[in-house]
Amino acid sequence: MTYALEGSVFIGGAVVQWLRDGLKIIKSAAEIELLANSVPDSGGVYLVPAFAGLGAPHWDQYARGTIAGITRGTTAAHFARAALEGIAFQVADVIDVMASDSGIPIKELRVDGGAAANNLLMQFQADLLGVPVVRPKVLETTALGAAYLAGLATGFWKNADEVKTHWAIDRTFEPTKERDGIAHRRKRWRQALERSRQWEKD
Question: Strand pairing of 133-136 and 109-110?
């Protein structure tokens, strides 16, 4: 039998849709990487996308979105970068709990989905976790997995080992940042996260 740990984050890539459709900072989801790359960092801005509460591992239905650290120098590019980083911070929170609960340290993170096409996000995720982030050639892994299962059920593939031979890496993002700097960033993220919690309950 095969078991999987699951951590549900309510708002991930949808924060990019919000920047596009709600704030109209970008015209397409693909534009966010170029905009976010136009600044060297988020300028101290942290965006907690708790638009529908917080999922794993925080589980706070009363949390609401928070943007912390805004100054007169904050630009749309800083918002874009903070939004992408907010996705990575949430993933890191889930990974930390999974590693702690299972007692198994993470060696690499394999990603998929539309957000995985964003090189800036993938690099920040690797820096944040301190492990390689591996992006496959086929980003729609959920649909591909369903096809693999159907192929196994009908005998198109002999076994799971044969299926594994079809998985191919597009790019591996290696961590580059100093860990001291990342520790400070995660501390500030947790502070911003706390400001979003229990907002609708009080």
Answer: parallel
Distance CA 168, CA 200 (A): 45
Ramachandran sector of residue 138 (left: φ over 0; alpha: ψ -120 to 50; beta: rest): beta
Q: Which of 138, 139, 133, 140 is nearest to 166 (CA)?
A: 138
| CB contact at 8 A, 133 and 172 | yes
Residue 133 — pLDDT band, cuts 50, 70, 90?
very high
* Cβ–Cβ < 8 Å for 130, 179: yes
d(CA 72, CA 81): 17
| Per-residue burial over 102-123, b = 16 or more CB atoms within 10 Å of its CB, e = otherwise | eeeeeeebebbeebbebebbbb
Position 202 scores a pLDDT of 63
Q: Among residues 7, 14, 95, 96, which one has the least CA distance to residue 47?
A: 14
Instruction: Reply yes or no on whether the pLDDT at 177 is more than 80.
Output: no
Look at the block and give the residue holding tokens 């007169």: 72
Distance (Å, whole) CA 4 – CA 186: 26
Q: Are 109 and 95 in contact (CB under 8 A)?
A: yes
